[in-house]
Write a structure and sequence with these properties.
About 40% of the residues lie in helices and about 15% in strands. It has 17 helices and 14 strands. It has helices at about 50-60, 65-80, 90-100, 125-130, 150, 155-165, 170, 190-195, 200-210, 235-245, 275-280, 295-300, 305-320, 325-340, 360-365, 365-375, 385-390, and strands at about 5, 10, 110, 115-120, 140-145, 165-170, 175-180, 185-190, 215-220, 220-225, 245-250, 255-260, 265-270, 290. The strands form five sheets. It has a four-stranded antiparallel sheet with strand order 12-13-5-14. Helix 12 runs antiparallel to helix 13 (about 305-320) and helix 15 runs antiparallel to helix 16. The termini are far apart.
Length: about 400
Amino acid sequence: MAKKDSKSGKRKTGKREPRKAEAKKPAEKIVKRKAVPVEPWEGLPLPKSIFDQIALVVERRKMGKQKADLLAKHIEEKYKELMVEPGEAVGIIAAQSLGEPGTQLTLRTKHYAGAAEVSVGSGIQRVEEIVDGRSKAKYPTMSIFLKPLLAKDKGKAERFAKSLIDVRFSDISEVREDFSVKRVLVSLLPEEIKERGLDERELIDKLKKGLKNAKARQRKLSVDFVFSKREPLLRIRRNFLKLLNSRIHGTRGIEKVLVVWENGEFVIKTSGSNLKAILKLPEVNVQKTITNDIMEVSDVLGIEAGRTMIFNELRKTLDENGILVDLRHLMLLADMMTFGGRIKGIVRTGITREKKSPFARAAFEETVKHLLDAAFKGERDELLGVVENIIVGQPVRVGTGRVEVIMKGK
């Protein structure tokens, strides 16, 4: 019979309760933050990210209370210096900060070393392209990073790079037409085929199957197409151009490739871009591969990726030309272009069109059109922005213009 415990009131059984198996955890190095006095920091007007970084530095360097306090105080002073004054016209300052050094940008086109054919837009034309939010980059390029097995082997990297080139029949063949007898001779170019690493037999077979309404005769590396006399010349021409333009190898949009050695690995630089197709390939490191086509990045990876690309590409272009601009101006521009969920350029069809104020719309381009439209619709301008108040001759509502306190006289 089970005995009753006098203290707990629970019945004791004769059987022992089995001990729970405790999982052995690996010994972790625990950092004790109590040893570092952080109480004085709690009241600092700093963002959490900066506060965490201060705590991390103090822990790693094993700073005492005095040094930790001095570091926190110094960072607080620097942070206050960098803060924007209330009512500051940040948009105008950003425009001046980007516009003034923008006059020093060049019109040159940059080329990758060792390959003049793989060119990248740089300087003023690249900045214009980004800021205008153009749907296609003039010089689209990609940096394709590879998985470890390919990234260290030059031969494998080059073979994979060649497999990406978009090849059409028109790139590797020579055509002779004789429409008087309705006959077309297509000769494959062995040098072009060898350079791209293609198989001659496969190409000949594809070429024969390309045109169904013609008799095909093979002659070594050429195919002779003979059409019936009833076949209209327009249809022959149309079908033949379609065959020559058909893709036989590679990824659409990738025109040229170059394998370069960067930071201890082989990277493929391309002329032409197709991010969506490249990211599906198993040989590609999807976390690092990128294109300079901002619209494509935004479509494939989302608007936040597009915003980051605008910022990164602007900073890269300015850095290449030795121009120093505060990063917050670039961030503001990127935010302004993407806050609506899609990339809008600083053009009359982009951000300006969506402004509520008729005067603000009229101040940029097509002045008469915007004023007439506003008059017909009976729009009302609240005069809240900078441009509107300048037009009507009122104090601008920025800086001291935001203050509405009136001092009474005696």
